[in-house]
Amino acid sequence: MRAEKKPCRRIQVSGMSVRRRLCSNSDEVKMTGKSSGRIRLGAIGENLACEALRRRGYEIAQRNWRCRHGEIDIVARDGECWVFIEVKTRRGRAAGLPEEGLTPAKAERLAQLAEMYMAEHEIADANWRIDLVAVEMDGRGRVRRLNVIHAVGAD
Question: Which of 13, 74, 80, 102 is least enclosed by beta carbons within 10 angstroms?
Fold first, then answer.
């Protein structure tokens, strides 16, 4: 059974209840608990990333694609190339730069998820890459910096 067929579901994230409406625009998230601000910040970052990517000519194919092994924040097309995008959003620099949140292990897992997505959608022979969108916001919620980094982990 695919999650897209259910109108709503309740999931547990870091000890808090999240009710997410699964629709074409999965921005509607109701949250409770102490981590809700962090999740809300992530959703804001993903929205900003989609806007920036569209302005750069990307076609957004899917947001928040999930399988039992993990999630891809944004799946898009950049011309003939499929792009699997991780979005990292930070408010301030206490936890470091957003780019520092994408570890080599996370990049490897994203590559595996990208291959699973491509197999599921029967596009396994297509060109693809992993991009990172780093969003840094100030204490008032204004975008300080948004950076699109192409071909993360490429040699």
Answer: 80
